[in-house]
Amino acid sequence: MTPMNNAAPVLEAADVEIHAPDAPAYFERPEVFIHECRIEAGQFWVVGGLSTASPSGVIQTLAGLEKPAAGSIRLFGDDPAALSEEGMVALRKRAGLVFSAGGRLLRNLTVMENIALPLRYHRFMFLDEIEDRVLELARALDLEPQLTSPAVALSLSARQRVALARALVLEPEVLFLDRPLAVANADRHGWWLERLQALNRGFNGMAPMTVVLGTDSLHPWRSVEGRFAVIEERRWVPLGGTEEAKEHSALAAPDWSRQKQRS
User: Which of 131, 123, 124 lies closest to 147 in space, CA to CA?
Assistant: First the structure.
């Protein structure tokens, strides 16, 4: 296994083509084309307009879970597609991923068991150590009352928060999120914005982490101090920092993605 390069950016993408997961092999037009993307440690990135493209393909490809149709992606200096199984396990400890639409939890396991899964798989820890860590994280994410409930009994909004806890339990260096507000109750939108910015700065004893999230609409994230990009005409378009990005209609219009779909 090639050693991870700590001096490298968290993510570099060059001339990447991302196709829709269910597109036939002969369909040559990419859903998204990324000419160049560079994400440094400690940055907070919001990528908007995903409803006009492959909803989950962009974030999952950037996170190294899916292989791009063309081009290159490097996480911490390494090409995920070229890593051995051992290398991928090491990468997954450094890069957390929160799936959309309820987070792909194991439905019949309890909340505690779902959150504990990465600890049981990746680390040799005593049961009481796992329970202490899970309980601490559940309290920080307002999940303690649901710890003994099976995931199937929770709302999609609550499952999304459990998926966040599961991704954080290994304390990754970068956190990828696929449309975290898509199933969140409206009164939880502020919760997500506050928690993710806190994670970026350092939260509940964890080191500050890089955050990269995809969203249908940039509008709810317009107050975040970070960097923005948008998928426009099937291309990744960097918008710059918060002040620069405010000039783009995607941040000003709540229904910008739907407008783009109709145009």
Answer: 131
- What is the pLDDT averaged over residues 93-110? 90
Q: Which two tokens stand for residue 250?
A: 């995607």
Strands 174-178 and 95-98: parallel
Cα 112 to Cα 146: distance, rounded to the nearest angstrom: 8
Q: What is the DSSP string of 64-106?
A: TSS--SEEEEEETTB-GGG--HHHHHHHHHHEEEE-STTTT--
Cα separation, 112 vs 162, in Å, equals 9
Strand partners, 210: 174
* Alpha-carbon span 93 to 91, nearest angstrom: 5
Residues paired with residue 238 on neighbouring β-strands, in sequence order: 229
Structure tokens at 159: 């499952």
Q: Kindly report the CA angle at 62 between 102 and 83, in degrees rounded to 5? A: 110
- Report how far apart, in Å, the C-alpha atoms of 101 and of each of 88, 98, 156, 240 are: 25, 10, 7, 28
The C-alpha atoms of residue 139 and residue 156 are separated, in whole angstroms, by 19
Cα–Cα–Cα angle for 149, 154, 156, nearest 5°? 150
What is the per-residue DSSP string for 167-214? HHTT--SEEEEE-TTSSS-GGGHHHHHHHHHHHHH--TTPPP-EEEEE
Contact, 197 vs 225, CB < 8 A?
Answer: yes
Mean per-residue pLDDT for 50-73? 81
pTM of the predicted model as reported, rounded to 2 decimal places: 0.88
